[in-house]
């Protein structure tokens, strides 16, 4: 079974010092880099917002395309990433899910690569990681979230735990990196 490591939005604006920082968001980077040796394929997503979008009515301005904040965290080993998927590219597009992109049909592309299982890492647990993992299940992939390689915002205390429970109920496997072989 071919497996893909899904690296969700590990971008400067979502890390400490960014415009929409996820607490300890940069701490996922070493875990993700270590996990790369265990996977056949690496796919990274990035928020790639235009300067004007309705998304910024809900959130501070972040990850505007071609800005330093939209770049991947400098310690992320991008040399090993096989595919970068941009999302949130439209003026009315939130782009939470890796599968919600005009760029390509990600599910079809993954199938063309022979991928059957997706393992999610990145930021933020209760938004883009959750939306991507739930969509992966809907597309028929065996889906897992690696808990020590994700971080969330927890806008309302308990949001992260609720997101993990929702994913688990939908059929997403919840595990830590020590369970990956």
- Structural class label: alpha/beta
User: What's the N-to-C terminus distance?
Assistant: 13 Å
Summarize the helix and strand pattern as letters. Answer: EHEEHEHEHE
Q: Architecture, CATH level 2?
A: 3-Layer(aba) Sandwich
Please describe the biggest sheet, giving its number of strands, its sense, and whether it closes into a barrel.
6 strands, parallel
CATH overall fold name? Rossmann fold
**Rg, please?**
15 Å
Q: Strand portion, in percent?
A: 15-25%
Average of per-residue pLDDT values: 96
| Largest sheet: spatial strand order | 3-2-1-4-5-6
Unreliable spans: none
Helix content: 10-25%
Morphology call: globular
CATH class: Alpha Beta
Give the full name of the CATH homologous superfamily.
Isochorismatase-like
Describe what is shown at a glance:
The chain is α/β, with parallel strands linked by helices and 181 residues long. It has four helices and six strands; from the N terminus they run E-H-E-E-H-E-H-E-H-E.
Describe this structure in words.
Helix content is 22%, strand content 23%. It is globular. The protein contains four helices and six strands; from the N terminus they run βαββαβαβαβ. 44% of the residues are buried. The chain is α/β, with parallel strands linked by helices and 181 residues long. Helix 3 runs parallel beside helix 4. It has one domain: Rossmann fold. It has a six-stranded parallel beta sheet. The longest helix has 14 residues.
Which secondary structure elements does this structure contain, and how are they paired or packed?
Blueprint: E1 2-8, H1 28-35, E2 41-47, E3 83-87, H2 106-112, E4 115-123, H3 125-138, E5 142-151, H4 159-169, E6 173-175
Parallel strand pairs: 1-2, 1-4, 2-3, 4-5, 5-6
Helix pairs in contact: 3-4
């Amino acid at each position: 079974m071919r497996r893909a490591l899904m690296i969700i939005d590990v971008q400067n604006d979502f890390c400490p010092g960014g415009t929409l920082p996820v607490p300890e968001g940069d701490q996922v980077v070493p875990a993700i880099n270590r996990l790369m040796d265990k996977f056949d394929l690496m796919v990274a997503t990035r928020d790639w917002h235009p300067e004007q979008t309705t998304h910024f009515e809900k959130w501070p301005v972040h990850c505007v395309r071609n800005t330093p904040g939209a770049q991947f965290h400098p310690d992320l080993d991008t040399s090993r990433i096989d595919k970068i998927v941009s999302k949130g590219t439209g003026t009315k597009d939130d782009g939470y899910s890796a599968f919600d992109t005009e760029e390509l049909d990600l599910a079809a592309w993954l199938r063309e690569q022979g991928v059957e299982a997706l393992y999610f890492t990145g930021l933020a647990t209760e938004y883009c990681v959750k939306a991507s993992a739930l969509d992966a299940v809907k597309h028929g992939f065996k889906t897992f979230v690696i808990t020590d390689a994700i971080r969330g915002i927890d806008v309302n205390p308990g949001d992260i735990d609720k997101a993990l429970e929702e994913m688990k109920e939908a059929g997403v496997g919840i595990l830590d990196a020590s369970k990956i072989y």
